[in-house]
Amino acid sequence: xxxxxxxxxxxxxxxxxxxxxxxxxxxxxxxxxxxxxxxxxxxxxxxxxxxxxxxxxxxxxxxxxxxxxxxxxxxxxxxxxxxxxxxxxxxxxxxxxxxxxxxxxxxxxxxxxxxxxxxxxxxxxxxxxxxxxxxxxxxxxxxxxxxxxxxxxxxxxxxxxxxxxxxxxxxxxxxxxxxxxxxxxxxxxxxxxxxxxxxxxxxxxxxxxxxxxxxxxxxxxxxxxxxxxxxxxxxxxxxxxxxxxxxxxxxxxxxxxxxxxxxxxxxxxxxxxxxxxxxxxxxxxxxxxxxxxxxxxxxxx
Length: 301
Description:
Elements: H1 5-23, E1 45-47, H2 53-58, H3 60-70, E2 74-77, H4 85-95, E3 98-103, H5 112-125, E4 129-132, E5 137-138, E6 141-142, H6 146-165, E7 169-173, H7 189-196, E8 203-207, H8 208-213, H9 218-224, E9 229-234, E10 236-237, E11 243-244, H10 253-257, H11 260-263, E12 267-270, H12 284-298
């Protein structure tokens, strides 16, 4: 489904408008760098393929070709769309894409043998980063037991140590439940996870949307966790608290990206969780990917 020239022009204009809006926020650029504007390096822009999950199931190869046409050179996978790791790598190679990162859950209870297999697949696909995607929700709702978080932090360290031996950089991706205060403590689940994991073994992939939904300012997280936030998920928050394409919602990304060096950021990953969910169509996820890429390529901070 090759993009039309008109659509590219329209989306480029929308991205430029979004960038202009961000720059209009008082102090967003001047606070760091004395008014000198920076940009997101294009080779650090990625897209989380969970955004395109339905579209990839319809036509993996054509969808990869469209991502390349948009401008992407890298992606973050969330599974292999029914292929083996080798078959998925071949499809990436044929399109000219690299899966620099991948979402893979560590086994619970922790199983070193199963995790080693996941690490082998990650190396076949060509990952540099492997990221645990989800924690914090129990059978009856959000986890509020600090002991559960401490046990999981120990498992993250085990997974990170094995990943490091395999030549991979292991990370943790948040949602919103981690930011709940744990019963009987003054700490949130995220405090426990970040405080009890070894920064040499576990970096952070901060989902900016879910951080805001958990009532946490990503700038505060950057100040507290300097150098540890290597990746961010760039998805926007609309006025109803739901998802929006990057640049179309309430989040001031420029204010956050102005702290990129302090954070340790080296990958900006476009995502929208509902991009192919009705009433949106699977093909709408490709529009989200395009809007997101153009927004990140156009924003100045």
